[in-house]
Write a structure and sequence with these properties.
By secondary structure, the chain is α+β, with helices and mostly antiparallel strands. The chain has one domain: Alpha-Beta Plaits, CATH 3.30.70.270. It contains two helices and five strands. The strands form two sheets. The protein has a three-stranded mixed sheet. Strands 1-2 form a two-stranded antiparallel ribbon. It is globular. The termini are far apart.
C-alpha cells in the first residue's frame, strides 16, 4: 500500500500511513518534525527562513473507529501542541511527545 500526503485546509496537512502502527506513525511524525525544524529554507534566495510544526497523530482502529473521528483526534492532538508547547508532536490519548 502507498502512503499519501495532502493539504487539508490553509496551513494544515494530512499524512495517511496505511498499514503503519501507531508507534511507527509517531516515529514518522517525530522525524518529519525534526527535519522541518532543522531545515534552512530559501537560502538560494538570500534568506534564512526557519519553520516550526505542530503535529497531531491518531491511529485507526486503535484510537478511532471512523474517518471523522480519526481526523478529529489528530486535529485535537495538533491543537494540544499549538495551545501548549508549540513546535512539537502530540498523540491521541498520549499527549505531547518528548523531543529527542
Amino acid at each position: 500500500m502507498i502512503d499519501f500526503a495532502f493539504r487539508y485546509g490553509g496551513d494544515e496537512f494530512v499524512i495517511l500511513l496505511p498499514q503503519t502502527s501507531k508507534e511507527s506513525a509517531c516515529g514518522v511524525a517525530l522525524r518529519l518534525h525534526k527535519l522541518i525544524r532543522e531545515m534552512h529554507w530559501l537560502r538560494s534566495e538570500g534568506l534564512d527562513v526557519r519553520l516550526t510544526t505542530s503535529a497531531g497523530v491518531a491511529a485507526y482502529p486503535t484510537d478511532a473507529k471512523t474517518k471523522a473521528e480519526l481526523l478529529h483526534l489528530a486535529d485535537e492532538a495538533m491543537y494540544l501542541v499549538k495551545n501548549t508547547t508549540r513546535d512539537s508532536v502530540a498523540v491521541a490519548h498520549m499527549g505531547v511527545l518528548p523531543l529527542v
